[in-house]
Every structure is written in C-alpha cells, then in structure tokens.
Amino acid sequence: MVTKNKQYLLYGGSGHAKVIAECIEANHQLVGGVFDDNPDSKGLKNLPFLGEYKIKNHNHPLIVAIGDNKIRKMIVEEVKNLFGSICHPSSCISPTVKIGEGTVVFHNVILQVDCVVGSHVILNSGASIDHECSLGDFVHISPKATLCGNVKVGEGTQIGAGATILPGIRVGNWATIGAGAVIIRDVPDFAIVVGNPGRIIRYYEPANNKFWPFGESIRTK
C-alpha cells in the first residue's frame, strides 16, 4: 500500500491529518506538505504548509485527509492528482485483501482474508473487519467497530465507534450506524440506525447533486 521513494501530500490540516501523517512516517516515508483551503489554517506542526490546493497534477501522491465522507467525496471529484494509500505497520492485513486508492488504514486494524476495500475509505484505529467483507468508496469505519464475516457496506456509509455488524448483513449507501449499535438485519440506503439491537430512527433526504448524495434535512421513518 505504500508508494515507495515518494513523498506524500495531504489535503486537509485537521487532527485526522495528523494521524495519517504519523502512519506515513511510521512507514519511513515523508510528508511533503499539507494543503488546506481554510484561510485561517496554519497546517500541521513541523510539516510544510502549502496553502490552498491548486487544481493541477502534482508529482507526489495525495491523500485527502478529511474525515467527513461527503466532503472527502466532493474534494476527490474536483482534484486531478495521483492518489496514494497508506497502512500503519501495526495493522494486520491478509495478503488476499484488495485496497483502493486514497484509503487509509490506521493503528491496529485487522483486515481478514478476501476483504475488498474501496477507494478513499477510512479504517480507523482498532477496527476489525472479518473475512470476505466488502466496503464501498468513501466509507468510514470508526474506532473499535467490528464487521463480522461477509458484511457489505455501501458507498459513503459511516459505521460508528464500537458498533458491531453481524455476519452477512448488507448496509446500504450513505447510511449512518451509531456508536455502539448492534446491527442484526440489513440497513437501507440513507438510514440512521442506533441501539442494540439496531433500529432505524430516521433517514437522510436523498438529493440529486453531483457532490452531495443527500441533503442536510432528514425525514422520519
């Protein structure tokens, strides 16, 4: 997953970017600089601050270091650049796993045999993904979440910290699974699910927009 002999560039200067930078450095690679469109941003300590991203093809692989799935998707679709992926060396990844571009795998993540991970996915600290799981693009698996075998997660979905998804469950696109939820049945697109056992409390409102797959408004079940 590491692009050898190249520096990485980061888009975003938040705490999430700090963890990605640490993953890069733990692989004995370099962070060549940090872009941030926020005019008040000063970048990350001890790393070159490159200011606002200019749309051009830089020579170094870029990682979009934005935790929000919707914003990450928007930026990726605007940027014209080689994307890099990075995995912290403490992660345990089967050699049969496939990982897409722009994806980051944080400390102590477990990825078991024949998992397929899409592009620009975040696998956060201590997440456990068992055999034959499939994660769509722009998914975020939060710290300590557990996906049992053969779970399918659709594009842009957020799995909350400490959530558990039982074997064979299908979770739709742009859904949100609350922290600590236990998912025992399939979850439709745009659903917001909480509790043990998980229950749908409301839905995001779908939107026909190039960048924003749903609006900020929500509807009740």
TrEMBL record:
SUPFAM superfamilies tied to this protein: Trimeric LpxA-like enzymes (SSF51161)
Gene Ontology MF terms in the entry: acyltransferase activity
Organism: Ancylomarina salipaludis
Ranges for domain PglD N-terminal: 9-79
Entry's family note: Belongs to the transferase hexapeptide repeat family.
Pfam families: Hexapep (PF00132), PglD_N (PF17836)
Annotated protein name in UniProt: Acetyltransferase
Keywords: Acyltransferase, Repeat, Transferase
Site (Increases basicity of active site His): E132
List of residues binding acetyl-CoA: H140
Residues annotated as the enzyme's active site: H131
NCBIfam families: NeuD_NnaD
Keyword Transferase: yes
Residues annotated as binding substrate: S14, G15, H16, G67
